[in-house]
Design a protein that fits this description.
Blueprint (H helix, E strand, L loop, with lengths): L13 H9 L14 H7 L2 H6 L1 E14 L17 E13 L5 E2 L3 E2 L9 E11 L15 H4 L7 E13 L5 E9 L23 H4 L4 E10 L8 E9 L13 E9 L5 E11 L4 E2 L4 E2 L12 E14 L2 E12 L13 E15 L2 E12 L5 H4 L11 E17 L2 E16 L10 E12 L1
Antiparallel strand pairs: 1-2, 1-20, 2-5, 3-4, 5-6, 6-7, 7-8, 8-9, 9-10, 10-11, 11-14, 12-13, 14-15, 15-16, 16-17, 17-18, 18-19, 19-20
């Protein structure tokens, strides 16, 4: 996991600068950043220096307001749907990152292949309103705090719990075993630090239609290369579907990703894919498992999702990232509302990150997302009293901009504006089903410790 000082919203060159932080075997050690500062101040830095074990955390809270006169603030774009104050996340992590030239979910890095094997681990606990979207069926969904929580209450989960191995084979290899955040999607962010440091407070429609985490194994490797050339890496994973430790259909999903890095490390290309049986792995009683219900655990219904992301550092102040996404579900549960059996969704988003100063970033994003039939449980808008769905589908457009200010290293302040438009069939997507557009203003504070 990359130290936060190299990945925070105030850092433009995250891909380039992260190499020095990830591979101290090849570079001088970086000065400790805000991540882990509380533990170091209380207990010293011996655990981190002598054993490479880091204890750190963060807290994130935000305020949200919309212009449609309802309490509904677009569940498709925000983890929480309550207008007003929300405690999004309070997290604590303990981890050890193995030294190597390949990082699982991130990809290959420059430099010669270290010849010594290494190992690490990550255990991250998360509490807050965001936590209910990251529960793992068969693992932490049945904890008492979660069973008693209403839809808008805080939840608790073990966001990650995995072993991490570096192996000096091929051009360098990494093996992750356990519960880990997905390697898919441009915005997931979990392969880097963790949820809070994402560049936007709200999320894309493609993000909400993808998996959040997996249980299983992910093997990442770098092809041997000539020193100073571009880098090519691959990932292969076998996991228990989407957000599940116990997948009732019994069929594992396969992850296959390709990652290319330019010789100067300024351009990243990631093509990420997951394929498997999507039947019977969504659970309304705990609001967990896959967000895309289909069939029962006796069925075999294909689900596939793919993401192509191109990121490029333009100059010392500007970076852009473009994501293309596609997904399909055979016999999606809600597709009949559009007179369909199978459902497809696809879209693109363009992200621009501009450094205004050493501690100030201006981030903007434009997105278009289309689904030919309702598929996501949130877009289905199931009435909690009657259980009857009233879904939305069609084209969704989102325009987001924010300023991320880090007045001191441990604190990030971020005002954000987002405007959404729904053009399609079914109920209007916003304002409790009464509005086809929405303006949302938010302000969130993140403290790293």
């Amino acid at each position: 996991m990359i130290p936060r000082k190299h990945i925070s919203a105030s850092t433009l060159f995250a891909p380039v600068l992260a190499a020095a932080a990830l591979f101290p075997v090849h570079t001088q050690a970086a000065e400790p950043g805000p991540s882990g500062s509380l533990f170091r101040s209380a207990f010293g830095d011996g655990l981190e220096k002598d054993y490479g074990i880091k204890v750190h955390g963060w807290g994130q809270a935000g305020w949200i307001y919309n212009d449609n006169g309802s309490d509904d603030v677009s569940k498709q774009a925000f983890f929480n749907n309550d207008e007003g104050f929300n405690l999004n996340q309070f997290a604590l992590a303990i981890e050890k990152t193995p030294k190597g030239n390949v990082v699982g979910r991130v990809g290959p890095f420059p430099g010669p292949m270290p010849q010594e094997a290494d190992w690490g681990f990550n255990v991250t606990a998360l509490y807050g309103k965001d936590a209910r979207f990251f529960k793992t069926y068969g693992f932490d969904e049945d904890l008492g705090v979660n069973r008693s929580a209403d839809a808008n209450d805080e939840n608790f989960n073990i966001a990650q719990a995995y072993l991490d191995f570096y192996i000096p084979v091929l051009g360098g290899s990494n093996l992750m075993l356990g519960v880990f955040h997905t390697p898919l999607e441009n915005e997931i962010g979990f392969a880097l630090p963790s949820p809070a440091p994402t560049d936007f407070y709200s999320h894309t429609y493609s993000f909400m239609h993808g998996p959040a985490k997996h249980t299983g194994a992910l093997y990442s490797f770098k092809l041997p290369q000539e020193e100073g050339g571009s880098m090519l890496g691959f990932e292969l994973g076998v996991v228990q579907g989407w957000n599940n430790m116990q997948d009732p259909n019994g069929d594992p999903d396969v992850i296959a990703n390709l990652r290319w890095r330019s010789a100067d490390f300024r351009t990243w290309v990631d093509w990420e894919n997951i394929y498997g049986n999507g039947a019977g792995d969504s659970f309304a009683e705990c609001a967990c498992g896959s967000p895309i219900p289909a069939g029962s655990d006796d069925d075999n219904l294909t689900r596939y999702a793919s993401y192509l992301t191109v990121s490029h550092v333009l100059d010392e102040r500007n970076r852009v990232a473009v994501e293309f996404n596609y997904g399909q579900q055979e016999d999606a549960a809600f597709a009949a509302f559009a007179n369909k059996g199978n459902a497809q969704w696809y879209g693109t988003d363009v992200n621009w990150y501009h450094r205004l100063g050493d501690n100030l970033m201006w981030n903007s994003r434009a997105e278009w997302f289309y689904t030919d039939a309702p598929v996501h449980v949130v877009m289905a808008n199931i009435d909690p009293h009657t259980g009857i769905p009233d879904p939305s589908w069609g084209s969704f457009y989102g325009f987001t901009t924010n300023l991320a200010w880090t007045p001191v290293p441990n604190v990030r302040l971020r005002p954000e504006l987002r405007y959404d438009i729904h053009s399609g069939n079914g109920r209007d997507a916003f304002g409790g089903g009464r509005e086809d557009s929405q303006l949302v203003g938010s302000f969130d504070v993140t403290v790293f410790f």
